[in-house]
Design brief:
This protein is an alpha/beta fold and 336 residues long. The protein has 11 helices and 14 strands. The strands form 3 sheets. An 8-stranded parallel beta barrel has the order 7-8-9-10-11-12-13-14, surrounded by 6 helices. A 4-stranded antiparallel β-sheet has the order 2-3-1-4. The chain binds phosphoenolpyruvate and manganese (II) ion. The site of manganese (II) ion (MN) has 5 residues, from loops.
């Protein structure tokens, strides 16, 4: 169960709640986030939650028996809005578009990409400076120096940055230059990384694991939330299936179902989701119709020359056309 604590709860009242839970053989765990304080209690015995609801210092109480609790819609009906500052928000009706190259390659590429985004009114740029590559001989990113150059140019142009963090040790160095930390599919269940990201005050977007279930993704998000960070986005990026005509199988079902299971924003990644440039647009539009709160899409001035994932990357013209169609699709969703 989730016990929401009153803002000004006294230590004595808190101890009182813990004591009642312990006598009922429940294991209480205190969670303090940017937005509130909670006690998560796990136990097997039947308990009349009204008795706890009436205790001093309790704001609200909810029975959530799933393995994930704080990220569940069972206690928080209103969808979460992620505020990136400067009027850039995602979730609860605000659609977020994140676009840019798979990898950050050079200063010239960053400048060119930012110009394209600004022209199209896109506020969030994606790009990897630490790249998880299947082969150790592939390009593995420009690292922190690339991120610093990117940050300077992005800041000058009012653009927010989403980029992947691969290890807990990288967080501190990256923190000042990042607006959203991306957890990649290969790190979706790196619980040490998730624990560490729960302790920072920056939004985190967690991608679904390569063969991950929705419940596993939600439990990964629970790691971040229960460590104190409520600012989480989930990302469907396709899963591995027996179909080999494309890179991954984009799970459109998961978009619709996750929106029922969680209050967190759900982002679609059609680029990795299908892995074939020609079909990125229809998959992006379908995900939007299914209820996605945003899309993250790979874009490059010359996709054929991209250092990574060129085969699934849109050129500027294709991207501009997609942005236009996304806004029309959003209008349609609002009208339905
Ligand atoms: C990426 O965003 O470029 C990436 C590596 O994605 P994923 O972790 O989904 O494979
Ligand atoms: Mn990529």
């Amino acid at each position: 169960m989730i016990i929401q604590l009153k803002e000004n709860i006294s230590a004595q009242a808190e101890q009182g709640i813990v004591k009642v839970l312990e006598t009922k053989k429940y294991k209480p765990m205190k969670v303090t986030t940017q937005d509130g304080a909670y006690i998560i209690a796990v136990g097997k015995t039947e308990i009349d939650i009204r008795k706890i609801g009436g205790l001093v210092g309790v704001d609200d109480i909810h029975r959530v028996s799933d393995a994930y609790k704080l990220v569940s819609k069972k206690w928080k009906i209103n969808n979460t809005k992620i505020d990136l500052g400067d009027g850039v928000t995602i979730g609860a009706g605000e659609f977020g578009i994140m676009a840019g190259p798979c990898s950050i390659e050079s200063e010239a590429q960053i400048e060119s990409s930012i110009k394209h985004l600004v022209e199209n009114g896109i506020k969030i740029m994606r790009g990897g400076v630490y790249k998880p590559r299947s082969s150790p001989y592939s390009f593995r990113g420009l690292g922190i120096d690339g991120l610093k150059i990117w940050y300077k140019l992005a800041k000058e142009n009012g653009i927010k940055i989403i980029t992947e963090v691969m290890m807990a040790e990288q967080i501190e160095e990256m923190l000042p230059y990042v607006d959203i930390f991306q957890v990649g599919a290969r790190n979706s269940q790196n619980f040490n990384l998730l624990d560490a990201l729960g302790k920072v005050d920056k939004p985190v977007m967690i991608k679904r694991g390569i063969s991950g279930t929705m419940d596993e993704l939600l439990q990964s998000a629970e790691y971040v939330f229960s460590n104190g960070n409520e600012r989480i986005l989930l990302c469907e990026r396709g899963i591995r299936s027996y179909e080999n005509a494309y890179r991954n199988t984009f799970d459109i079902n998961a978009i619709a179902m996750l929106k029922e299971k969680t209050h967190l924003p759900v982002i679609a990644d059609p680029s990795h989701g299908i892995g074939v440039r020609q079909f990125v647009e229809p998959v992006a539009l379908a995900a939007t119709m299914a209820g996605a709160d945003g899309v993250i899409v790979e874009v490059h001035s010359i996709p054929e020359k991209a250092f990574s994932d060129g085969q699934q990357t849109l050129d500027y013209q294709q991207a501009s056309s997609l942005f236009d169609k996304l806004s029309k699709t959003r209008e349609l969703v609002r009208m339905l």
